Every structure is written in C-alpha cells, then in structure tokens.
Amino acid sequence: MFRLAALAVAALSASVASATISCGSTGDSNCPSDAPCCSQYGECGVGAYCLGGCDPRYSFSLDSCTPEPICESKSFDSWDNLDSLAKNYDYLGNASDYDWVYSGTLLTDNGDLVLTMPNNSGGALVSYNHYIWYGKVSGTFKTSRDAGVITAFILLSDVKDEIDYEFVGANLTTAQTNYYFQGILDYDNAVNGTISSDSFENFHTYELDWTPDSITWYLDGESIRVLNRNETYNSTTNQYEYPQTPARLELSLWPGGASNQGEGTITWAGGPINWDSQDMQDPGYYYAIFRNISITCYDPPSGANIQGNNSYIYTSYTVTNNTVEIVNNATILNNFDDTGLNMTAGSSTATATSATNTAVSVPSSNGGGSGAESNQGSSTSSGSHVSSTGFSQGGSTQTGAAAVNEHVFQSSIFAVLVAVIALVVL
Ligand SMILES: *[C@@H]1O[C@H](CO)[C@@H](O)[C@H](O)[C@H]1NC(C)=O
Ligand SMILES: *[C@@H]1O[C@H](CO)[C@@H](O)[C@H](O)[C@H]1NC(C)=O
Ligand SMILES: *[C@@H]1O[C@H](CO)[C@@H](O)[C@H](O)[C@H]1NC(C)=O
Ligand SMILES: *[C@@H]1O[C@H](CO)[C@@H](O)[C@H](O)[C@H]1NC(C)=O
Ligand SMILES: *[C@@H]1O[C@H](CO)[C@@H](O)[C@H](O)[C@H]1NC(C)=O
Ligand SMILES: *[C@@H]1O[C@H](CO)[C@@H](O)[C@H](O)[C@H]1NC(C)=O
Ligand SMILES: *[C@@H]1O[C@H](CO)[C@@H](O)[C@H](O)[C@H]1NC(C)=O
Ligand SMILES: *[C@@H]1O[C@H](CO)[C@@H](O)[C@H](O)[C@H]1NC(C)=O
Ligand SMILES: *[C@@H]1O[C@H](CO)[C@@H](O)[C@H](O)[C@H]1NC(C)=O
Ligand SMILES: *[C@@H]1O[C@H](CO)[C@@H](O)[C@H](O)[C@H]1NC(C)=O
Ligand SMILES: *[C@@H]1O[C@H](CO)[C@@H](O)[C@H](O)[C@H]1NC(C)=O
C-alpha cells in the first residue's frame, strides 16, 4: 500500500548502556557532570540527550543542553522522500541539514508523509528541529483510527510548556485541545472540538496560532478555541501558567491503549489497542497521513533579550518567558560524546553506536515511540515494573508519585512518552 522508504531500520543499540540515571520532577535529582543532560523522558546522558527535549531545569547545569536552533518559517507540501528528516541516531543538532528528527518508521506515499505504528510498537514521533517562539503551525492530515490509537499535532518546549491537538482513534469526529505550563498537571484544561467529517477518511486542516497573549486553535479555518494569557493567572504563584517558551512542533502516532500504559491513559485513549484490527492485517500497521505542514514564525516578543540570531538559551531556572535569550551560540555537537558543556570535546569518530563515553547517548531509542526496533531484543517485555496504574521510568521502579502523574497527565504527550520508553528500556 505504501512505498517503503525507510523500513530498513538497523537494530541499533545506543552506546554503552550503563545503568540509566533518572532526572526530572519525578526523577532522583539533577543529572551528574558525566551524563549532564536530562532528556525529555527523564533520563541522564550525553549526545542526543542534550539536543531537542533536553530539560535545562534538571540537567547538570543550565548550559548542559545544547542551545535551541532559532525559528525558521517553512512549508512542506510534497514529501517525495525523507531527505529533510534525520533518524534520531544520526542527528547532532544541525537544523540546516535536517528540518526534522524522527524515531519510529516513516513512509512516503504519493507525496504524503506516513507515520506508522507496527504491531506492539511505540509508534512514531517527528519533531521540527527549529524551535518556535511564537508562531502559527498548520497541518493538513488524516488521523489514525481505532481504540487506543492516538494521533497528535502539538507544540512542546524543552521545559514542557505544551499546546496540543490530539485525536483518539475511537472517536473520529472529536479533536481534543489542551495545554500545559511547565508540565504542571491540570485536569481542567482540555476542550473538545467537533470535526465536520471522519478524520481518518478525510483530510482536515488543524492550526495552532500562538502569540504572547493568546492561543487560537483553528479547525478547517474556523476558530474552535481561544485561550488568553490573562485567563491563566495563578495568584498563589503570581504567574501566568501560559505556554511561553520556545517549542518544537511534534507529529506523532502512539499507543495510548498499549497494555503497559497506565489505566487512566488507556481509558482516555478509548480502551486497549487491538493489534489484530483491520489496519494491522492490511497494510500491517496503524498509520496517520500528513499532507501539508507549514510553520510561520512570529517576531520575538517585545522586550525579548536579543543578543544574536542563531539560537535560544535559558538564563534562569525559573524558565519563564523573561529567561529566554536569543544568542549566536552554535547548536551543533561534534559527535555523540559531546554535551552543551563542551560541544567539541569528544572523539570526532564517535557515533550513536560507538560513542566512547560510558554514558548513554541517544534517549531510549524512541519518542512517541519507535517502530519495530523498540520491540527487538528479548528483554523488552520481560521483568516489567509497569503496574496497571503507574509508569515505570528508565528502568527504575517508581514511587506512588508516578501513579498520580499517570492519572493526572492523562493526555500529556510528555507523560505518555515516558511510559512508551519504559516498554523499550525494561
Ligand atoms: C553561549 O556561548 C557563550 C560564549 O561562547 C558561552 O559562555 C555560554 O556558556 C554559551 N551558553 C550556552 C547556554 O551554551
Ligand atoms: C550544517 O548543515 C549545512 C547544510 O548541509 C552545512 O552547510 C553546514 O556546514 C553544516 N554545519 C556544520 C557546523 O556542520
Ligand atoms: C464522539 O465524542 C463526542 C463528544 O464527546 C460525542 O458527542 C460523540 O457521540 C462521540 N462519537 C462517537 C462515535 O463516540
Ligand atoms: C472529549 O470527547 C471525548 C470523546 O471523544 C470524551 O471522552 C472526553 O471526555 C471529552 N473531553 C472533554 C474535556 O469534554
Ligand atoms: C483578557 O484579554 C482579552 C484579549 O486581550 C480581553 O478581551 C479580555 O477582556 C481580558 N480578560 C481579562 C479577564 O482581563
Ligand atoms: C496555583 O499554583 C499552586 C501552586 O503550584 C497550585 O497548588 C494551584 O493548584 C494552582 N492554582 C490553579 C488554579 O491552577
Ligand atoms: C501482533 O502480535 C501479537 C503477539 O504479540 C499477535 O498475537 C498478533 O496476532 C499480531 N497481530 C498481527 C496482525 O499479526
Ligand atoms: C496542500 O498544499 C498544496 C500546495 O500548496 C495545495 O495545492 C493543496 O491544496 C494542499 N492540500 C490540502 C489537502 O490542503
Ligand atoms: C513575559 O510575560 C510577561 C507577563 O507575564 C510580560 O509582561 C512580559 O512582557 C513578557 N516578556 C517577554 C520577553 O515576552
Ligand atoms: C546574525 O549575526 C551574525 C553575527 O552577529 C551576523 O554576522 C549576521 O549578519 C546575522 N545574520 C542575520 C540574518 O541577521
Ligand atoms: C573542549 O574539549 C576539547 C578536547 O578536550 C578541549 O581541547 C577544549 O579546550 C574544550 N573546550 C572548552 C571550551 O572547554
């Protein structure tokens, strides 16, 4: 059915997998100096751990993560090949070379980009490498279908400000909108929109228009939701709990209804995934078809600290809008041994699989999950610590806090990705 453009994914194992160290709000602590970068999934490492998703709050220091490539407006309306997309094992931060980085299995089909989710896999994740500090992103796509199958089109910052469009395959006429501030859990931010016709059979255009003052979700050109910053004020913390830091556009397809997900997530996802469904028989995987994607960057906010034109960095652990600085710092690591602390320190020959550093260098192979590779190796499904109500993160058993997170996070891409990773790591 689809042209196989990238199915020959090698069985890669990232660097020397010593015991992973967890970090982040549910992790043990900040990362140590020899594995200074706290990945999107809450684990410490070097190399790709320091690129997109690296959270400066929980890394060894604010400058452990590599600077974030500055926004670039682009449109993609013909996916004839995968040349603009780097596999996560190949990308070192040169956004001029590759507009996107991905994990999982992608295909092209008559000019469309197809995200796939083969049997028992974690699905696929595609992230735009140029961070957006306010802008409009537009996607014309067909979602996947069936219970437990989630298609997503979101903006996600490295400090987990998040603006979402999510689609649960059990209901093809509902588009779920949501947002998060710094990953803080909130039950009440989701709002549903109505899609005029079945989102699996038909292309629709979904847009997120993000300015310093408001976010508008558009569906086929019509505004279905507006969030004003002034509605998000928290008088206890004295701040606007409003997405306000440079974010990447992420397209993903992932198994919210996989058996290793928490109960709350599976329920939200519309129930357990059926890995023997019609799509699993033919073409043999769940899929979502992306036709047109466009990114329009807005000017930096007035009052922004502009000292250059190449990248964004954070100047304080509060990671609010006022702590973002635009600088000339490079964004590219020399190799998979390097970190933001010294981007040219390691051996020039180190690759994702031959890095000499003993720390891990590519975050647990997948994001929104990966394709078949996440299931390779006999250890993936054995000895799982995953309970029906909690995440297991990075191989370490979680405390009760994780179960709470799982329930509360529900539809947060971030949280669910952590769970997907657990499938891979264990
Ligand atoms: C940016 O570059 C300056 C000058 O080279 C350096 O001192 C600083 O640590 C860099 N900042 C980050 C966050 O990498
Ligand atoms: C990044 O990629 C661009 C485009 O391929 C290339 O011209 C440039 O030299 C690369 N930069 C580095 C530092 O490798
Ligand atoms: C989809 O969800 C909407 C809103 O919650 C609901 O009105 C509709 O009945 C649902 N459709 C199906 C097929 O479940
Ligand atoms: C949105 O619709 C889904 C059904 O598609 C339903 O399960 C969910 O509770 C709704 N969410 C909100 C916030 O109304
Ligand atoms: C919030 O901002 C919007 C748009 O600027 C404005 O129309 C509205 O009155 C404001 N609401 C409050 C509560 O200040
Ligand atoms: C405001 O922030 C406090 C402290 O983080 C939190 O407990 C509270 O739930 C927040 N209030 C709202 C309305 O989100
Ligand atoms: C998917 O894998 C499971 C075993 O893990 C198997 O029972 C099922 O038949 C497979 N589905 C298809 C469509 O091959
Ligand atoms: C996608 O973009 C192309 C070229 O800009 C345009 O002709 C086409 O109508 C768009 N397709 C959809 C489904 O929006
Ligand atoms: C940051 O947000 C505050 C409101 O919380 C606003 O007054 C200020 O201008 C913003 N600064 C930047 C650089 O966006
Ligand atoms: C970006 O900054 C560099 C160094 O200050 C300067 O040489 C260059 O002209 C600037 N580029 C643009 C597009 O402004
Ligand atoms: C980075 O590491 C290299 C190799 O060890 C060293 O020569 C260089 O001085 C270091 N750079 C900085 C800024 O520490």
Automatic annotation (TrEMBL):
Chain segments annotated as transmembrane: none
Entry keyword Lipoprotein: yes
Principal EC category: hydrolase
Pfam families: Glyco_hydro_16
Signal peptide: 1-19
GO cellular component, one term: side of membrane
The UniProt record lists the keyword Signal: yes
Alphabetized PANTHER family for the sequence: GLYCOSIDASE CRH2-RELATED (PTHR10963:SF22), GLYCOSYL HYDROLASE-RELATED (PTHR10963)
Family: Belongs to the glycosyl hydrolase 16 family. CRH1 subfamily.
The protein's name in its UniProt record: Crh-like protein
Source species of the chain: Talaromyces atroroseus
